[in-house]
Protein: Endoplasmic reticulum transmembrane protein
Amino acid sequence: MALQWVILSYVVAAEAVVALLLTFPAPKPLKSRLVALIALVLQPATGILPFVAFQLLDLYWKNEHRLMCTSEICTAEERIRYEKSMFKAQRNVILCVLACLLYWCIYRICKYHRDIKELEEAEKRLKAE
Structure:
C-alpha cells in the first residue's frame, strides 16, 4: 500500500472515532466542549477533500490506461495480477468515498449541535421576557 493510502486510511479511522465520540451520549457541558473542539479542527481538516479528489482522479486515470487482461493470450499469473490490481483500486475508491462521507457526517453533527444550542439560548431569552 502506498503512503498516500496509508495516510488516507488513518484519516478515515480518525474520522470514524470522532464520529463515534460525537454520537455517544455525554453530559451536556462535556458534549458542548467536545463539539466546539471538533468544530475548530474541522476547518483545517477540509484539506482532506482535495486530497481525496486528487486520489480519485488518479484512480480513474490509472483505470482508463490499465492494460486489459481479458483474452486468452494472458497467462494465469498476469490475470491474477490484473484482478489483484482491480481489487486494490476498488478498495481505494471505497476508502476515498468513506473519507468524504465521514467528513460530511462530522460536519453535519457539529452543525446540528450548534443549531440546537442556538435554539436553546433563544428559548431561554423568550422565557426570560
Notes: Helices lie at 3-23, 28-42, 48-64, 76-128.
